[in-house]
Design a protein that fits this description.
This protein has about 180 residues and is of the alpha+beta class. It has helices spanning about 35-50, 85-100, 120-130; strands at about 1-10, 25-35, 55-70, 75-80, 115-120, 140-145, 150-155, 160-170. The chain has one domain (about 1-170): Cyclic Phosphodiesterase, Chain: A. The strands form 2 sheets. It has a 4-stranded antiparallel β-sheet with strand order 2-1-7-8. α1 (about 35-50) crosses α2.
Length: about 180
């Protein structure tokens, strides 16, 4: 089963920039890839107390960018302008908990972003170019409250990804 750990993000863009999706928006804290059922259960067990130690916070989605670059986009995303330190700390806590459960590590650096779309066709490239054009109407900043972290199973279909939240972990803050 493909899985990831993420923060849910409310939809914020219009259909010109981001067409309707088959799955809710999210900011991935750690992509896990294919994981067997026994490992999923262990990951859920270790993630709950780790995530609970973090206090709720907010971050701001602002601007757009692309990986690897806006000249050669493969993934188009919205960036984080405020709350990046909190997201990095939370992602590190999630990664540490996953590593302790034998989930391995991800060598890629954590870059907080929300994927808008992947560039897979000439039409996608045109859409990306319009979005990056100087006169494009970039969506306004969006404040996103973070009150929980989700463990999500992902199924790829011809209509797009279908996500199912397997577990939700509330951020409760440090206890005295």
């Amino acid at each position: 089963m493909r899985a990831f750990v993420a923060v849910e993000v409310p939809p914020t863009l219009d259909a010109e920039i981001e067409p309707a999706r088959s799955a809710p928006d999210h900011l991935t804290l750690r992509f896990l890839g294919d994981v067997d059922e026994r490992t999923i259960e262990e990951l859920i067990r270790v993630l709950a107390p780790s995530v609970a130690s973090f206090a709720p916070f907010e971050f701001v989605l602002e601007g757009v960018g692309a990986f690897p670059s806006t000249d050669r986009p493969r993934v188009v995303w919205r960036g984080v302008s405020r709350g990046e330190a909190e997201l990095r700390s939370l992602a590190l806590g999630v990664r540490t908990a996953i590593r302790s459960a034998g989930g391995g590590d991800d060598p890629a650096p954590f870059v907080p972003h929300v994927t808008l779309f992947r560039v897979r066709s000439p039409r996608d490239r045109e859409r990306a170019a319009r979005l990056f054009a100087a006169n494009a109407s970039i969506p306004p900043p969006t404040v996103v409250p973070v009150r929980s972290v989700e463990f999500v199973e992902s199924e790829l279909t011809s209509a797009g990804a279908r996500h199912r939240t397997r577990a939700s972990f509330p951020l409760l803050g440090p206890t005295d």
